């Protein structure tokens, strides 16, 4: 058994370990950033990006002639701020290290809270942290490989007038890239959050089904806040996955009546 100050001391050691891992990753990403920038971050700017190749392959197999499947796509960025490359270098290394360190951060959280939990609670928390880590990286991957390339290709080729030439700045590209990719990662935590709230008895399947229409409105508003551009296309690209995650949340949790029956059954067994 630890005192309050012992817990604070243990928390301090956890924070130092997390900061140490984050710092090492940040230094590594800072050194490797020129290569990563050309081959990972700027990859959606080039016609040979894997998602564009997939669209062209689908178009060939299904004999689709629409420009969506046949478009040749290239984007050239410009820089109009003297200090922008340096600050983009620093901030990108920071955010990439945060994303990469997420599994270790969840592990340290688990190590810190597990001694205070009962065996059945440990199993639930361990499962939640594991699912949360996987879902976060699925969201990040979806944002990088599909949501952002679609957004970039649509907005960079959109013309209000033939007299206006689109020139995308480095800061604009990075801001949109980080916003969409990280927000998609966080959005994929929705089923986990809903599942945890159901365990606490705050939400249940009937409640989510009853307020499905309200959820659609909230999802659209949240998507409008998340998307940095505000155009209908980007809004749709973000809102549709969020709504599918809401439906997944309904499938993951149990109904209130079933939860009450199981609770009574456990109480009876405990009494025996």
Short description:
The protein has helices spanning 4-41, 50-61, 67-70, 84-100, 102-113, 119-157, 170-187, 190-199, 205-210, 212-226, 232-252, 256-271, and strands at residues 77-78, 168-169.
Describe the structure.
By secondary structure, the protein is mainly alpha-helical. 76% of the residues lie in helices and 1% in strands. The chain is built from 12 helices and 2 strands, in the order H-H-H-E-H-H-H-E-H-H-H-H-H-H. It has helices at 4-41, 50-61, 67-70, 84-100, 102-113, 119-157, 170-187, 190-199, 205-210, 212-226, 232-252, 256-271; strands at 77-78, 168-169. It has a two-stranded parallel sheet with strand order 1-2. Helix 4 packs parallel to helix 7 (170-187) and helix 6 packs antiparallel against helix 7. The model has no long low-confidence stretch (mean pLDDT 82).
Total number of helices: 12
Shape: globular
Q: Determine the strand fraction and express it as a percent band.
A: under 5%
Chain-averaged pLDDT: 82
Q: Rounded to an integer, what's the Rg over CA atoms?
A: 23 Å
Please summarize the sheet with the most strands: 2 strands, parallel
- Please list the strands of the largest sheet in the order they lie side by side: 1-2
> Strand pairing plus helix content: what structural class?
mainly alpha
Q: Helix-strand pattern, N to C?
A: HHHEHHHEHHHHHH
Q: How helix-rich are the residues, as a percent range? A: over 70%
Total number of beta strands:
2
Distance between the termini: 31 Å
